[in-house]
Amino acid sequence: MTKNNQQNSQRQAATKSRIAGFVPKSASFVTTAVAPEHYPPTTLPEIAFVGRSNVGKSTLINLLAGKKSLARTSNTPGRTQAIQFFDIDGRFMFVDLPGYGFAQVPMAVKVSWDKMISSYLERRESLRVVILIVDARRDPTTDEDGLLDWLELHRRRVIVVVSKIDKIPKHARFGRLKAIASGLGIPDSAVFPFSGLTGDGRPDVWGAIFDVCDSAPVPEPTS
Question: What is the DSSP letter of 171?
């Protein structure tokens, strides 16, 4: 192991230990936007969440934030039609982007969503990382593959979260994660399994966020 790799491993281990059990002390809705002029002014690092309709974006946001009703969840695909901003602990801004890939949305709406999402992802200076969420039960599509290529072209950092992992039998999860990573053309270690039902994977996703933002929480003092 090289010195740089060893230092990175040590830093990641330290980050993971510091975020174990981490729950933000506050989380609140900030605003909804459909165009850049509506984005909130902020110096906070932004973490954007993107994925197909009904992939579990809102559930992931709520569990990471420790606030059940922060982002609205819905069984109706295509419900989120604007960009939603949430302040997390006064340290981060979570950004919920409209879901893509819902066939019953009119073409004019799809075009509007595409422009809205690409404009934010391409131009937002405070955006630090994009969390791409894929369903554990489905193989990656050209939508996810194309989005990853586009984000790489625009030099955006990406965390891939595999949602609904509880829907996969435990004995098959390792192989399923490998298949998804292979389908996306990324290393196995670059995908993070997550369950909205049990909360499994939450510390690892927070660890990845803190690692990108390089700002791990300071442990509470013990008496």
Answer: G
- Residue 183: CB atoms within 10 Å: 15
CA distance 97 to 58: 10
> What's the pLDDT tens digit per position in 40-67?
998 899 999 999 888 899 999 999 999 9
Q: Which residue has the tokens 């969390």?
A: 131
Give the type of residue at 116.
M
Phi-psi region of 9 (alpha: psi -120 to 50; beta: other; left: phi over 0): alpha
pLDDT tens, residue by residue, 161-202: 999 999 999 999 999 999 999 999 999 989 999 999 999 999
Q: Where are the domains positioned within the chain?
A: 12-53+60-90+104-213
pLDDT, one tens digit per residue, over 140-165 is 988 888 889 989 998 999 999 999 99
Extract long-range pairs of 149-152: CB within 8 Å, 24+ residues apart: 150/118, 150/121, 151/121
Confidence of residue 81 (pLDDT cuts 50, 70, 90): confident
Q: What CA–CA distance (Å, rounded) separates 156 from 150?
A: 9
Region 12-53+60-90+104-213: CATH code: 3.40.50.300
**Separation of first and last alpha carbons in the chain:** 39
